[in-house]
Amino acid sequence: MPNEVSLALLGCGAVTRQCHLPAAMDLPQVRIAALVDSDIKRADTLRRSFGLDCTVTSDYKTVLAYVEGIVNALPNNLHVPVTLDALQSGRHVLCEKPLALTAASARTCCEAADEKGLVLALGMQMRFHPNQRVLRLAADEGLLGAITGYDWEYGAAWEWDTSSGFYFSRTKAGGGVLIDFGVHLLDRLIDWFGPIEQLEYQDDNWGGGIEANASLDLTHNGRYGRVNGHLRLSRTYTLKNRLLVKGTKADAEVRVGVADVDSVELHSRIGGQNIKMTMAFADRPVSGPIQCYVDQLSNFIESIRGAQKPLVDGWQGLPTLKVIGECYARAKRIPEPWAELEGASTGVHA
């Protein structure tokens, strides 16, 4: 069709197979020009399973000459070098989270995009969940009263269908549950409540590997004043999987994951009775499992066309990466008294 935007999808693992590629197939303004993966067989299997007529290659540099943009869904340690190569070649980039393993490297990517006048969007699909805006509206309209704090838990036994297994390598992933899924939650929290000015962090990494469980106490200072909150993450067991925002008039509950990304529940007392009210956009259909990826990719395409701006650009990813870097630098170990040796330290990691 006229005005199609040609894209190359780099990395043909689970997130591309289950999310990015189905989202691209849902958008008529997207033409998938290439699938790139170090495993050619995996890339070609994906091409055939979706009935695509496109290039399949293991060398991403060969496709930069004839596409307008790329979706960088490679392992985390490859985000920066590949993103920089694409930007230097004049290609727009939608990069999976995290943009980089350090805030300094992410800044380099942002500056390169600005210098070239290119779009650098960040794969924070949860920002496209309708309940992100619903909670903002409820708080801005004073339905919660003064916000007094929040508690957010997200966790379950690991079950992601990883193709490369890079998630379990500190060198390739940069860390564990905090940089993998915590990056999404921190990004949303900063968007709602403003910059984080104080933090305390604990995890279960004993010094040489990656964390499977993490706990953060955070203080924000933003549009609602100072807000204290607690964030708990796990890859080993199921938690409450909800955000509870506490207010002087009402509490707001936001579910995480695919349970319900459209609505926010308000809990209050009226006439001495506990009342629950569900808030959602009345004119929007219920979101499907990949709708946030469709919305994210559509925003990227329209940003390339100049009709929109990225909802989450590279610069917006910097505060979150700074927080994660500070967490890892100041990490203390979650107390595990049943595993302690006499005289063993429970302080900062080695």
Question: How do you describe this structure in short?
Answer:
With 350 residues, the protein is α/β, with parallel strands linked by helices. Helix content is 31%, strand content 27%. The mean pLDDT is 93.
Q: Can you put this structure into words, describing what you see?
A:
By secondary structure, the protein is an alpha/beta fold. The chain has 2 domains: 5-126 and 293-314, NAD(P)-binding Rossmann-like Domain (Rossmann fold); 130-285 and 321-339, 2-Layer Sandwich (Dihydrodipicolinate Reductase, domain 2), CATH 3.30.360.10. 31% of the residues lie in helices and 27% in strands. The protein is built from 9 helices and 15 strands. The chain has helices at residues 14-25, 40-49, 79-88, 103-116, 130-140, 170-173, 177-193, 291-304, 314-329, and strands at residues 5-10, 30-36, 55-57, 69-72, 92-96, 120-123, 147-155, 196-203, 213-222, 225-234, 242-247, 251-255, 264-270, 273-279, 332-333. A 9-stranded mixed β-sheet has the order 14-13-12-11-7-10-9-8-15, with helices on one face. Strands 3-2-1-4-5-6 form a 6-stranded parallel β-sheet, sandwiched between helices. Helix 1 crosses helix 8 and helix 7 (177-193) crosses helix 9.
